[in-house]
């Protein structure tokens, strides 16, 4: 009887504290698909498809450029990028952490950007973070994206020869 | 008190302690904002050693155009190089977004910094954005675990190549 007196409250406490098992495999698969759709749209010069995987009020933080607020600003940025470069390559690694209706997707990528106006192609090794939020309809959309480059800055040109 | 009763009380107490309530994001933001103010103050003071205390034991920091900085030893070198590259006059952070999940939190911040590069006489301003993943230790201390940041200021346009005569 004494054991039961102790066991009862303990079981109640355990039940109250226990978190239901969360199977995030489906979420991770969905987020992986978002990332791949994003890259395919970026490389394919499809800004409408690109912004479709971002929330309407997404914040995009490219390096050495002002922060882009919202899908319209991002669409214009992507269209401008597409008018200037042909992009090849893609993501090389990713790590997704799901926490409820939020997810963090840390990624790396290797891109080759060839100026459409001519000139040498640029190799970029990038790394960044997508923050995603599960929408009311269950879809995952990117709400924030920040990245920068692992590629060192090119050294300044040598002084003019006379 | 019988041994059984003592054991029951101990078990119940342990369960209650382990059953932590979800943290209030507003409380967490107050704590993280305070830690970022400390971070800025230490940066301006050039105290790289003290800055290290704001990071976990295995941090990774991604600075633009540089390899990832992994671990406290490399981070110390990175912070020392950063803080000795000039005279940091001011540094401010502002939280733009924050989400908390259990013992982790992610935060998007903007920063504004003014510094005089070594060898220069005039201050240079920079501003940008960053993402930090924070982890909370069992003793309730929040530490930066992952950090990526970049400047929003365009890179200087390189001078045209010299004309050879």
What are the defining features of this structure?
heterodimer, A: 162 residues, alpha+beta, Nuclear Transport Factor 2, Chain: A, six-stranded mixed sheet, 4 helices, 6 strands, B: 165 residues, 33% helix
What is this structure's SSE topology?
The complex is a heterodimer of chains A (162) and B (165).
Chain A: H1 2-17, H2 25-43, H3 47-51, E1 54-61, E2 68-69, H4 71-84, E3 85-99, E4 102-115, E5 122-134, E6 140-149
Parallel strand pairs in A: 1-6
Antiparallel strand pairs in A: 1-2, 3-4, 4-5, 5-6
Chain B: H1 3-18, H2 25-45, H3 48-52, E1 55-63, E2 69-70, H4 71-83, E3 86-101, E4 104-117, E5 124-136, E6 142-151
Parallel strand pairs in B: 1-6
Antiparallel strand pairs in B: 1-2, 3-4, 4-5, 5-6
- Strand tally of chain B: 6
Number of DSSP E strands of chain A: 6
Estimated radius of gyration of chain A: 23 Å
Which structural category do the helix and sheet elements of chain A fall into? alpha+beta
The profile of the biggest β sheet of chain A is: 6 strands, mixed
The gross shape of chain B turns out to be elongated
Order of helices and strands of chain A: HHHEEHEEEE
Distance between the termini of chain A: 100 Å
Question: What can you tell me about this protein's structure?
Answer:
The complex is a heterodimer of chains A (162) and B (165). Chain A has 162 residues and is of the alpha+beta class. Chain A has a single domain (23-149), classed as Roll (Nuclear Transport Factor 2, Chain: A), CATH 3.10.450. Chain A has four helices and six strands, in the order αααββαββββ. Chain A has helices at 2-17, 25-43, 47-51, 71-84; strands spanning 54-61, 68-69, 85-99, 102-115, 122-134, 140-149. Chain A has a six-stranded mixed sheet, covered by helices on one side. Chain B has a six-stranded mixed sheet with strand order 2-1-6-5-4-3, with helices on one face. Chain B is an alpha+beta fold and 165 residues long. In chain B, strand 5 and strand 6 (142-151) form a beta hairpin.
């Amino acid at each position: 009887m004494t054991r039961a007196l102790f066991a009862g409250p303990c079981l109640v406490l355990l039940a109250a504290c226990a978190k239901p098992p969360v199977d995030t495999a489906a979420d991770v698969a969905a987020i992986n698909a978002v990332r791949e759709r994003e890259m395919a749209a970026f490389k394919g010069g499809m800004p409408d498809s690109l912004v479709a995987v971002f929330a309407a009020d997404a914040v995009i933080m490219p390096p050495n450029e002002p922060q882009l607020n919202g899908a319209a600003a991002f669409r214009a940025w992507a269209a401008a990028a597409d008018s200037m470069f042909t992009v090849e390559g893609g993501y090389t690694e990713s790590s997704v952490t799901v926490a409820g209706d939020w997810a963090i997707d840390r990624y790396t990528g290797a891109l080759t950007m060839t100026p459409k106006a001519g000139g040498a192609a640029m190799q970029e090794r990038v790394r960044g973070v997508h923050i995603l939020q599960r929408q009311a309809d269950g879809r995952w959309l990117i709400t924030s994206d920040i990245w920068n480059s692992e590629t060192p800055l090119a050294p300044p040109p040598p002084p003019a020869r006379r | 008190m019988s041994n059984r009763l003592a054991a029951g009380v101990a078990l119940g107490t342990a369960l209650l302690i382990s059953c932590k309530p979800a943290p209030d994001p507003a409380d967490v933001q107050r704590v993280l904002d305070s830690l970022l103010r400390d971070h800025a103050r230490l940066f301006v003071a050039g105290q790289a050693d003290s800055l290290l205390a704001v990071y976990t034991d295995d941090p990774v920091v991604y600075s633009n155009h540089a390899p990832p900085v992994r671990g406290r030893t490399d981070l110390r070198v990175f912070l020392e190089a950063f803080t000795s590259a000039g005279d940091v006059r001011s540094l401010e952070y502002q939280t733009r977004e924050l989400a908390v999940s259990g013992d982790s939190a992610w935060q998007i911040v903007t920063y504004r910094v003014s510094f005089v590069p070594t060898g220069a006489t005039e201050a240079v301003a920079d501003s940008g954005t960053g993402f930090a993943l924070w982890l909370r230790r069992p003793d309730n201390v929040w530490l930066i675990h992952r950090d990526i940041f970049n400047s929003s200021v365009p890179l200087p346009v390189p001078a045209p190549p010299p004309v050879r005569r």
